[in-house]
Amino acid sequence: MSRMVSHPLFRATLIILAATIGYYGISAMISDVANMRASVAAKTSAVAQAQPDGLAARSGYDRDTDRAVADALEMLRWPANGSLQREDADRVGDALRQALARAPHDALLWLGLAALETDRVPNSSAGAEPLKMAYFTAPNDARLMAMRLEITTRISRPIDLQLKQLAEGMFG
Question: Global pTM?
Fold first, then answer.
């Protein structure tokens, strides 16, 4: 059996080399974490500015779409029938449909269309399909829950099983 004897200078060199590699590795990791935090902070700030308080105020929409969403949702505050004149309802409907063509993932637009259709034709289930889309596109958005239930209760015809399950699913 032979025994290896290491030279003290060789040991010291390896320790210094390990310390140097460790130092550069740790400093690179700290730099990456700092850059990642700055990036996340910038993105969070951008999202917060893009979605200010208030459901109808969305910077991604143009002014006409903002107004259409606000008009459609305003109908939830007043009794059904006659809250918008026919030409205004047509303008709001057109603006909402155009916006939905660009942003079909936006539950607020679907909710506005459901409110409009329910107000426009109160004795039908015309608002049921856009209302389902409002449930599907943002099922857990607490800001929309009360408005979805309000529209659901305004549908005078018996609602279909799927919409009933979506509405009950909020409480189940």
Answer: 0.56
